[in-house]
Amino acid sequence: MSKTEPDKLDDTALDAMFAAARAETPEPSAGLMARILADAENLQAARDRPPRPMARPGPWARFVDGLGGWTTLAGLVTATLAGVWFGFVSPERLDTLSGGLLLADGAASYALEDILPADDGLAAFYEEGGQ
C-alpha cells in the first residue's frame, strides 16, 4: 500500500503533523546572529561616511557640453571639413563639380531662370506634346 491512500491520511493525522511542525520553531545559532549583526554594523558605518566628491569634468568635456553635446560637435566638424574642402578646391573646380549651377562671373544673385530654366515652373511635370 502506498502512503498516499486516503484511508492512511485523515484529517487528524494531518493536524497532528502540522501541530508538531508549528511547535518546533528553528532558532538561528548564536554564531550566525553575531555575523549578521557585525555585517549590519559595518554597513551602517559605511553609510555614515560622506560620499566621495564627483570628479570635475575635464576641459574637453566642458567644451563639448557647452556646444550641446556630441551630436552638435559632429555637425560642426562636418561643416568645418566642408569649408576646408571648399577653400581647397578653387571656384573653377566647384563650377565643374556643381554642373554650372554656381553664379557666373559678374552676376550679383541668382535669377529664377538660373534655378528653374523653364518658362513655367511646372513645365518639368508636363508630358511631352501638351499640357
List keywords for this structure.
131 residues; mainly alpha
At a glance:
With about 130 residues, this protein is mainly α. It is about 55% helix and about 0% strand.
Average predicted confidence as pLDDT: 76
Into which percentage range does the β-strand content fall? under 5%
Distance between the termini: 100 Å
* Low-confidence residue ranges: none
Query: What letter string, H or E per element, gives the SSE order?
Result: HHHHHH
Largest sheet: none
Helix content: 40-55%
Count of alpha/pi helices: 6
Multimeric state: single chain
Overview of the molecule:
- By secondary structure, the protein is mainly α.
- The protein has a domain at 65-116.
- Helices cover 54% and strands 0% of the residues.
- It is built from 6 helices and no strands.
- The radius of gyration is 43 Å and the shape is elongated.
- The model has no long low-confidence stretch (mean pLDDT 76).
Element layout with pairings:
Blueprint: H1 11-23, H2 30-48, H3 59-67, H4 70-88, H5 91-97, H6 112-115
